[in-house]
Each structure stands twice: as structure tokens, then as C-alpha cells.
């Protein structure tokens, strides 16, 4: 870990079924262990998660949030799936008769291009917000982030930037 200060983990989902469907090939228990080892070595860890996979259920959305919260990640990002033109997911959306929008100017990971899940648009947006709130607004997590930021004067800027990206 000499010189390593941050590791990003592209976990995508806390659901084994979704992991198989997207052919990610991750073993969630091994990822959890890898995150813990990195944390023990003093390395800041970030997890990338996506919500909105085809057929995803409320239980699977909740499993993703639970995985993030129960891991030793320092930070996590929850994005909504964007079926970009020319991708397999876009083809699947079209075959399902789901209309998708694509705005190349919108670089937000909170924009809902289309909903391929088993939940309503409103519920999907709710779980997207819930993931961030449940992950970040726990006393232990706030303390871990506080300890991990070397320059405490930068904290207000980091928080403002994070809230602008995640919650607006």
C-alpha cells in the first residue's frame, strides 16, 4: 500500500442476482473483505453503486444500500442506471417497450433516463436518495469521514460539493 491513499470499488449492486445479470463476476463477501483490508491499511475507500437495473426489486435496492452501510467504505456514490444509446441495457429497454431519454448535456448521475425496475419512478428516486442519506448520516460514518480528511479546513467545501452532486 506504499503511496496508495484511495481505492475505488465498482460494486454496482448488493444483490447476487443483479451481480450475475450484469456479469460483474464479483463475490460480495470477498469485496467486503477487501474493503476491510484496505481500511485497516489506512486507505480511504469509495464504493460505486447503481440503481435501476432491469427487473430490480425493492428488496434488491435495499440490499444495495445495506451492503454499502454494512461495509467499511468511507464514501459511496449511488447513481441511477443510464441506458446509453448503443449499449446492451438500452437494447433491453427498447425490447421491454420502455421509453428512454438521453441528454448528452446532462452529466448528473441522479437523472432518471428510464426505469427498468419493478418499482415506480417515485420509489426508485426515493431509494436513490435513501441510499445517500442512510450511508452518510450515521454518527459512525460522520466520524470516519472527519478522521479521514487530513485538512479539516477543506471539510466545508467537500461537504458542499458532495451535497450539490448527490442531493440536488
Folded structure, characterized:
By secondary structure, this protein is of the alpha/beta class. The chain has a single domain (6-167), classed as Transcription Regulator spoIIAA (2-Layer Sandwich), CATH 3.30.750. 47% of the residues lie in helices and 12% in strands. The protein contains seven helices and three strands, in the order βααβαβαααα. Strands 1-2-3 form a three-stranded parallel beta sheet. Helix 3 (58-70) links the parallel strand 2 and strand 3 (75-80). Helix 3 runs parallel beside helix 5 (121-136). It is globular and about 50 Å long. 26% of the residues are buried.
Compact overview of the structure:
With 168 residues, the protein is an alpha/beta fold. Helix content is 47%, strand content 12%. The protein has a single domain (6-167), classed as Transcription Regulator spoIIAA (2-Layer Sandwich), CATH 3.30.750.
Structural class: alpha/beta
Order of helices and strands: EHHEHEHHHH
Per CATH, the architecture is 2-Layer Sandwich
The shape is: globular
Strand order of the largest sheet: 1-2-3
Mean pLDDT: 87
CA-to-CA gap between the ends?
35 Å
Strand content: 5-15%
Whole-number tally of structural domains = 1
Q: How many H/I helices?
A: 7
In angstroms, what is the radius of gyration?
Answer: 17 Å
How many β-strand stretches?
Answer: 3
The main pleated sheet reads as: 3 strands, parallel
CATH class: Alpha Beta
**Unreliable segments of 5+ consecutive residues:** none
CATH topology: Transcription Regulator spoIIAA
Q: Give the proportion of residues in helices.
A: 40-55%
Amino acid at each position: 500500500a506504499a503511496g496508495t491513499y484511495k481505492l475505488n470499488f465498482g460494486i454496482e449492486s448488493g444483490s447476487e442476482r443483479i451481480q450475475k445479470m450484469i456479469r460483474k463476476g464479483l463475490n460480495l463477501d470477498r469485496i467486503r473483505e477487501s474493503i476491510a483490508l484496505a481500511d485497516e491499511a489506512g486507505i480511504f475507500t469509495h464504493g460505486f453503486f447503481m440503481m435501476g437495473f432491469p427487473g430490480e426489486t425493492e428488496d434488491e435496492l435495499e440490499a444495495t444500500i445495506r451492503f454499502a452501510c454494512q461495509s467499511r467504505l468511507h464514501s459511496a456514490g449511488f447513481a441511477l442506471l443510464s441506458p446509453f444509446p448503443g449499449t446492451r441495457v438500452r437494447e433491453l429497454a427498447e425490447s421491454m417497450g420502455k421509453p428512454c431519454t438521453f441528454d448528452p448535456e446532462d452529466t448528473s448521475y441522479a437523472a432518471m433516463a428510464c426505469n427498468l425496475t419493478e418499482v415506480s419512478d417515485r420509489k426508485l428516486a426515493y431509494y436513490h436518495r435513501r441510499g445517500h442519506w442512510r450511508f452518510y448520516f450515521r454518527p459512525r460514518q460522520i466520524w470516519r469521514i472527519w478522521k479521514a480528511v487530513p485538512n479539516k479546513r477543506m471539510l466545508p467545501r467537500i461537504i458542499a460539493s458532495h451535497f450539490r452532486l448527490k442531493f440536488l
